[in-house]
């Protein structure tokens, strides 16, 4: 893992865990830029993620997502909020793990559902990924993705009931405690959950 001070920092986790908002907060504190992979995808494609899924399918979206992740890992001094499914591809997991610290933001199913419902742009921009209904989809996808999030995270932070400022502070403290310890991935990086 890159230990240079200008390495990018990645936020992973299911949608609704606060990645985009925390990225902006954290970037402001660090004097970094912030980037959102989903926004980068939409900018590059000139359309919404929902439209990409509808017109070209999930495979085409994941291919584009991998291209964007490959670009984002090259950025310096940037806090990157990755889409919830970016960890599905091994190439993405390897790329972010090699580039800089990876912080996994977690939240309860109820918190995720509340945040998704409160985000008026979610329905128009993000497709449902299953036919299970919102609660069951979240539970099912969390079950599938949690091992992938866990495998590439150097730090995990529970976001339930916390402000974005509190989450950013917890991330900074956790990364500082783990700085410079051990050459292996994750060694010395505390997990707050």
Brief summary:
The protein has 9 helices and 5 strands.
Descriptive notes:
- The protein has 193 residues and is an alpha/beta fold.
- It has one domain: 3-Layer(aba) Sandwich (Rossmann fold).
- Helices cover 53% and strands 11% of the residues.
- It contains 9 helices and 5 strands, in the order E-H-E-H-H-H-E-H-E-H-H-H-E-H.
- The protein has a 5-stranded parallel beta sheet, with helices on both faces.
- The longest helix is centred in the last third of the chain and has 19 residues.
- The protein is globular, with a radius of gyration of 16 Å.
Estimated structural class: alpha/beta
Strand order of the largest sheet: 2-3-1-4-5
Question: Based on DSSP secondary structure assignment, what is the total number of beta strands?
Answer: 5
Q: Any low-confidence stretches, pLDDT <50, length ≥5?
A: 180-193
Q: Which key features would you list for this structure?
A:
single chain, 193 residues, alpha/beta
Topology diagram in text:
Layout: E1 9-12, H1 19-30, E2 33-36, H2 37-45, H3 49-56, H4 58-72, E3 78-81, H5 90-99, E4 102-106, H6 109-118, H7 122-125, H8 134-152, E5 155-158, H9 164-178
């Amino acid at each position: 893992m890159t230990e240079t001070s200008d390495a990018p920092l990645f936020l992973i986790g299911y949608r609704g865990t606060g990645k985009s908002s925390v990225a902006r907060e954290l970037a402001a504190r660090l004097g970094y830029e912030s980037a959102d992979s989903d926004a980068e995808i939409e900018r590059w494609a000139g359309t919404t993620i929902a439209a990409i899924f509808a017109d070209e399918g999930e495979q085409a979206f994941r291919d584009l997502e991998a291209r964007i992740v490959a670009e984002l890992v090259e950025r310096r001094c940037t806090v990157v909020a990755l889409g919830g499914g970016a960890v599905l591809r091994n190439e993405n997991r390897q790329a972010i793990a090699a580039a800089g610290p990876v912080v996994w933001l977690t939240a309860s199913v109820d918190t995720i559902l509340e945040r998704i419902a409160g985000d008026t742009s979610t329905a128009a921009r993000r497709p449902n990924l299953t036919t299970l209904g919102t609660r069951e989809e979240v539970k099912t996808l969390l079950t599938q993705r949690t091992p992938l999030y866990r495998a590439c995270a150097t730090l995990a932070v529970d976001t339930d009931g916390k402000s974005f400022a509190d989450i950013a502070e917890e991330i900074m403290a956790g990364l500082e405690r783990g700085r410079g310890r051990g050459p292996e991935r994750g060694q010395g990086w505390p997990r707050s959950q």
